[in-house]
Each structure stands twice: as C-alpha cells, then as structure tokens.
Specification:
2 helices, Malonate decarboxylase acyl carrier protein, cytoplasm, Ribosomal Protein S5, domain 2
C-alpha cells in the first residue's frame, strides 16, 4: 500500500459544507471522499493505493482535475484499488459534481 499527498493549485468554493462520498472500494475502482479544507486556492489530495510506483501518473490525473474544476478549498481522499487513470478521472468528476449538486 502506498500513500501519496498532493497540493493541486485550483480556485474554487471556500464555503463550509457537508462531506460527499462517491465510488466503491472494489477491484479496478476507487472511493473518493470530498470535504472542505482551509486553503481556498489549493485542493489537498491524499491517495491510498494498492498500485505502487505510479506517483507521476497520479500527479498528471490530479493536475488535470485541478485545471478543469474549481476544487480550491477542498480536501479529497482517494482509496484506490487498482483503478485506471480514466476511472479515477471519472470518479473525480462524479465527486465534484455531487459536491456541487448537494451544495448548490
């Protein structure tokens, strides 16, 4: 098991809201928890993954996410069970959409 941490620059909502959980911890998938954080211009991401040695790929996927979404002021925790970058990106999109819908 590898634990990775990233601070992704991103603008976004800084309001305090309830956490959102999407996805599942099953083979080839991941679970994502979105919570409010303190830094309004940064999205803090923690990744727990069973696939060791893919830090650069995680950085690329999370950087793309930070550029596409207003995720500043959020803390995201990802529990990965071998999800591909496409699945992680899809789950991140789903998580931010649920965050925005639940808190509109």
């Amino acid at each position: 098991m590898e634990r990775l941490h990233y601070d992704i620059p991103s603008h976004g909502p800084a309001r305090r809201r309830d956490p959102v959980l999407v996805g599942v911890t099953a083979s080839g998938n991941c679970e994502i928890l979105v919570e409010p954080a303190d830094a309004p211009d940064t999205c803090r991401v923690s990744v727990n993954t069973s696939a060791i040695g893919f830090g650069e790929i995680w950085q690329a996927v999370l950087g793309d996410f930070g550029r596409r979404h207003a995720a500043g002021g959020l803390a995201i925790e990802i529990n990965d069970v071998g999800a591909t970058p496409a699945v992680v990106s899809l789950r991140l999109d789903q998580a931010i959409e649920a965050w925005e819908e639940d808190h509109a």
